[in-house]
From TrEMBL, chain A:
Residues 1-33, 165-186 are annotated as: Disordered. It comes from the Bacteria. Keywords: Oxidoreductase, Pyruvate. CDD domains: TPP_PFOR_porB_like. Residues 167-181 have a biased composition (Low complexity). This is Pyruvate ferredoxin oxidoreductase. It comes from Maritimibacter fusiformis. Residues 75-236 form the Thiamine pyrophosphate enzyme TPP-binding domain.
Amino acid sequence: MVQDSTRLNGLRAKHGRPPAGPHEPQAAPSTLRQGQPRFRGLEAGHRACQGCGEALAARIVMENAGPDVMVANATGCLEVFTTPWPQSAWRVPWMHSLFENAAAIASGMEAALKARGRNTKVLAFGGDGGTYDIGFQALSGMLERHHDVLYVCYDNEAYMNTGIQRSSSTPHAASTTTSPAGKERMGKRHLKKDLLSIIAAHHIPYAASASVAYPADLARKVRYAMGIEGPTFLVVHSPCPLGWRHASALTVEVARRAVECGLFPLVELERGALTNIMPIRTPRPVVDYLELQGRFAHLFDETDTRAIEERDHLQALADHNILTYGLAGTGDDPVDTTGIAHVRRGGPLAERT
Amino acid sequence: MTMTRLTRGAWAAPGTSLEFKTGNWRSTERPVHAHAKAPCHAACPAGEDQQAWFAKLQEGQPQQAWRALVHANPLPAITGRVCPHPCETACNRAALDGALAIHNVERWLGDEAVARGWAYPVDTPAPDAPRVAIVGAGPGGLSAAYHCVRLGLNAALFEAAPEAGGLLRSAIPPTRLPRDTLDAELGRLLALPGITLNLRARLGRDVTLDGLRDAFGAVILSPGCELPKPWSVRGAVPADLHDGLHLLRDFMDHGALPDAARGDVIVHGGGNTAMDICRIMKRAGANRVTLITASALPGPNTARDDLINVVPRELEEALEEGIEVIEHATVSRLIMKGSRVTGVEIVSLRKEPGPDGRKRRVEFEGTERVLPVDMVVPCVGEQVSPDGFEGVLDGAYFWPDDAWGRLREDGVFAIGDARGNRGTVAAAIGDGRLAAQAVAARLLGGDAPVADLRPERGVAGLNTAYYPAMRRTAVAKLPVAKRGFETEIEGGLSRAEAMAEAERCLSCGNCLACDNCWTMCPDSAVIKTVEAATDGSHYVFDLDYCKGCGLCAQECPTGYIQMVAETG
Ligand SMILES: Cc1ncc(C[n+]2csc(CCOP(=O)(O)OP(=O)(O)O)c2C)c(N)n1
Ligand code: SF4
Ligand SMILES: [Mg+2]
C-alpha cells in the first residue's frame, strides 16, 4: 500500500502535500482560479522546468481544444511532468500510451467513441522524439486510416525527458548529448527532418506548424483543426530552456526569433497544398536566434572556421525556407510575424478589430 | 459505478496537481507588479503623469483624462501651447517611430474642458480654513492658488498688474497663446471658490511681506522675473538700448517698434523671449534678424546641456521664417559711431569643463568677425525686481533650500522663475503644486510631502515587439506668408486625432491589461481578475505555483512586471 511507503510520505511532507491517495477528498482550487475566463484543461502544479515551452504550448492547445476532448499522450516530458502519480494536471480524460504508439492509442479511442455514437474529439500528443522518430509509423497509419484525431507534436528538437539526446527534429549543428560539439563534429551532422511535408503527403485535410511565440496564431490553428472531421496535425515549436540552454525567461523570445529568421516557418497545408503562411515582416539574421542558446555556443568561436561555415549553412537553410514557402512579406500585414503579436490596452490588437 | 482497480496502471483525479505547490521551486526571484515612472512623467516640470491620463484616453474617457491631468496642472490649454515639452524629448516612443505629440493632446484636453465646461475636481474649502497669501498671479501663483484650494485652503492672490497672467500675458505673443484661450482658462481657475484675486497690489507699494506674514497662515512668493539682466559688452552700452523683454511688452501693448528695427538686427541671447522678439521683428519688417547664441542648434550630435533652450517647434518656425542663427558664439565688441551701434564683433565659443569640473564658456581667439547692424537687442535673461523683497532675495533670485520652496523665513515659500534655476511655465506650475503641498501639511497637519522616488522605466525596460507602428499625428501650421501678430500659428487636433494619438502611448512602467503575462505563463500562475487586483493591473500572481521563470517579466510590453529577489 502506498500509505505505508515511508519514502513517499517523506516526499509528500517535503513538498507540502497532504498524505492523500487519489480516492481521498481533494483540495478545491481557489475560486479565483475557478473563475478564469478560459478552459483550464492543463492545470498548475505540473512539474515542468521553469519557462518550459512545451508546458506553455500544451496549456494553450488545451484552452482552445477543450473541454469536450480526450487525450492520448506519448511518453516524454509532457506526460511525465503532468502526471506524477497520484496527481494529474489534466482536467480531461487523458491516457498515457507508450513512447511509440500515441497515434495508435488515439485511433482506438476514436473508433471506440464512434462506436458509442459520441462526438468527443480525440487529441494525440507527442514530443518530437515520439513523433518524428519512434511514433512515426503509428502516426502514418492513423493518418492513412483517416481517424478523426488532432495530433499535436510538441517540438523541442530533442529527447528532453531522457537527457537531451538528438532526434531527427534536432536542427543541424545543434549540440546534444548524443551529438556533442567538439573536435570531431560541430553538433548534429544531419538536417532537421521536414516532417510537415511528409505528413502533408498523406493528403490529410489540415497540417500546420505553429509556435509558442504567437499564441493567437496557435489558438486559431487549434480551433481550425478542431472544426475538421478527419486527421489533422499540428507541430508546435516549443523551446526547452534546459536542452537549448537559454534563460528560462527567454522562451518566447527564442521562439520568436526562430520564426523571424526563417528557420522555423509557420505554414498551413490542406490536402497537401500550401494554403497559408505567416509572412516575416523583417527577416532577422539567423545568428540573432542562435546567439541566445547554449546548444549553438560552439558556432560563436571566432577562431574556428567550421563555426563560421556552420553559421552560414544555417543561414542558407533559413533563406531556403523563406524562398520555398514565400515567407518574405509584402508590406505591413496585421497577421505577419510583427502584426500578429501586437497588443493594445485591454488585450491583443487582433481580437479588437 | 464502481471503479475497477487496474493491475498495471494507475489513475488520478483531474487537476490534483494543484496539491503540489510548485511555488516551492522559486529560489532566487519572483515577479512583482512594479509601478515605475514613465519618462514623460519624470521629465515634466509640472509633475503631470502623462501616462496616467493617456490611459484614460485609451479607455475612451476624455473627461477622466482631463481630471487626471489637472490633478497636477490646472492650465493644460496654456502649457499645451507654450511649454517646450521636455516630456516629448524624454518619450520612449522617440526610439521607435517618433515621440508622442503630448503637447498637442494636452492642449486638446484643455480646450475641450473649456468648451464643455468640465468642472475642476476640487471642493470648496471651508470658510474658516487657513488662508494663504500668494504674491504674483502668473502661472506659478495661479497653480499655487489652485492647489491650495484643492488641498482645502483658501488662497488670496496679490498681483501688481491690472490683470492676472504674469508673463503669459506680458511676454508671450498671441500667435503662441491666443488671448481668448488665456482668458478662458485663467477665468475658470480664478472663478473657483476659495480664490480671491487682488489686482494692482504690488509688494513694497501696496502690501508688505511682513504684513502678509501677519495676516496669513503662509506666504508663497511667485513674483516672476520682471527686470532684464544688465547687459554690456566690455563695459560699452549703446545709448538707445532696448532689451528684448521690453520691446516685446511694448509691441504687445502698442504694436510699435523703434525705427532702427527696420534694418539689420542682432538679438543676443537664447531663450523663448529672444526667439519671440526675433520673429516679431522679422514679421514687422526688419531687413535681417540674426540670433547670436552661446548654445547649439539641435543636431544628431548636440549634447542635451548644449542645446538652445527654446520650444523646439518655435525654433523650427523661426528658421522657416528666415531668422538666422549663429550658434556657439557671443558678442565680443560693439562698433559704435558716436553713441550709436553700427556693427558688432562676434567670436566663437564653447562650454568646456573647467578645472573645478563645472562648465565655463571659452572664447576662441582668431574666430572674431564683424557684422554691420542697425540695432542690437540683448535678451540674456531676467531677474527678480527687488522692491519689497529686501533681505529675502539672495542676489538676483530666491534660493530655497528644498523642492517645496521653503525659505529661511518661517512660513514663506518661493516658486517659479524667481527661483534662479527655473525658467519654464511648467516649472512654475510644478513649484506651485509642491509649495501648496508643503503649506497644506504645515497649516492642516498631516504628513509632510515626500518626493516620488519610483524608478524611471526607460526604453530598454520595455518589450517593444508588442507595439504596432503608428505615425505621430501631424498638426497643421499657418504658412509663413500668412503669419501675423494675432492668429495662432500651430493648429489643434480633432477629437479623432487626439484619441488616435493617445493609442500610441506605450504605457511605460504601467499595466496595459494586454493579457501577455496571463497568456504566456507556462504554469498558470497568473490569474486574471479585475476585482482582486488592487495594484492597477488586471492580474494577480499565484505564488503558490509561480516557479519564477521570468517569462512574464520578459514579455510584459511595459516593464510593469519586474523580477525581484526572493526574500526568506
Ligand atoms: C520504447 C521506449 N524507448 C525509450 C523510452 C525512454 N524515453 C522516455 S521519454 C524519451 C524521450 C522523449 O523525447 P520526446 O518525444 O522528444 O519528448 P520530450 O521529452 O522531448 O518532450 C525516451 C527516449 C521509452 N519510454 N520507451
Ligand atoms: S526538459 Fe525541457 S521540455 Fe522537459 S520539462 Fe524541462 S523545459 Fe520542458
Ligand atoms: Mg523532444
